[in-house]
Amino acid sequence: MTDTYMRVSMLNRDYEKTIDTLSKDGQVSRETENYLEKIRDIKSIDDFLGDYEIYSYAMKAFGLEDMIYAKAYMRKVLEEGISSSKSFANQLTDQRFKEFATVFNFASHGDSTTSFEKTQQGVVDKYLEQTLETREGQENTGVQLALYFQKKAATITSPMEFLGDKALAEVARTIAGIPEEAAGADIDWLSETISDRIDIDKMSDPDYVEELVQRFSILYDLNHDTTSTAAPNVLISSGNSIVGMDEDLLMSLQGLQLGGI
């Protein structure tokens, strides 16, 4: 198996070509064409949640595939929108739900929500990126994590944003040299340790992010046997969600903050 950093570097050099090739894959192409053909006809949250193909495509695009079954949970995310700081999406520690509600902002835009570019080609672009990450993760989870971190790095403004996302938390702990056994340690200690070893103020600096990707990749390969089959891929898709719960329990987590994890 190619080591993590070498594979990430190869993908970065030919990223646009790789994405273009992926977009022409039979299944990916069919699902994308179907999405673009039908999304303009979606005029409400009921329409959106009622069309499984469209809804699941969008959820996969945001790395929320393991939450597709939780329609009541996602309805609450969409109905409350993002305008209020007290809305459901804004209270969740996993920022992917806020991102989802920002793009599919039915609460503010109503039946014109799907007329915007961000809900059409913007979602397709996210879907292709997510699909690439997922497929790479089937061979080497470290590559998937590194790609995901690269994509999200510029949006990270605090150590808590690392810790609020299981995939980013894995990256941060690896870079900071925090052992896996300490993943459940005191949240304040984890936050302080990450702050000491990662300069959050430089997360929008591509050169610094590249240094972090290299450091993560090397340490990941040291910590894992990347010459054998990669570990099961659960980090990206599950995020901060608790997979396997019924919807009533998920709904009860609407006030969950990091200190309660």
Descriptive report:
- The protein has two domains: about 15-125 and about 245-255, AGR C 984p-like (AGR_C_984p-like); about 140-240, AGR_C_984p-like.
- About 60% of the residues lie in helices and about 0% in strands.
- The protein is built from 17 helices and no strands.
- The protein has helices at about 5-15, 15-25, 25-40, 45-50, 50-60, 70-80, 90, 95-105, 105-110, 120-135, 140-150, 160-165, 165-175, 185-195, 205-225, 235-240, 245-250.
- α5 (about 50-60) crosses α10 (about 120-135).
- The radius of gyration is 18 Å and the shape is globular.
- This is Flagellar biosynthesis protein FlgF.
- It holds the Pfam family DUF1217.
Short description:
The chain has helices at 4-13, 15-23, 26-38, 45-50, 52-61, 71-80, 88-91, 95-103, 106-109, 121-137, 141-152, 159-163, 166-176, 187-197, 206-223, 235-238, 247-251. With 261 residues, the chain is mainly alpha-helical.
Topology:
Elements: H1 4-13, H2 15-23, H3 26-38, H4 45-50, H5 52-61, H6 71-80, H7 88-91, H8 95-103, H9 106-109, H10 121-137, H11 141-152, H12 159-163, H13 166-176, H14 187-197, H15 206-223, H16 235-238, H17 247-251
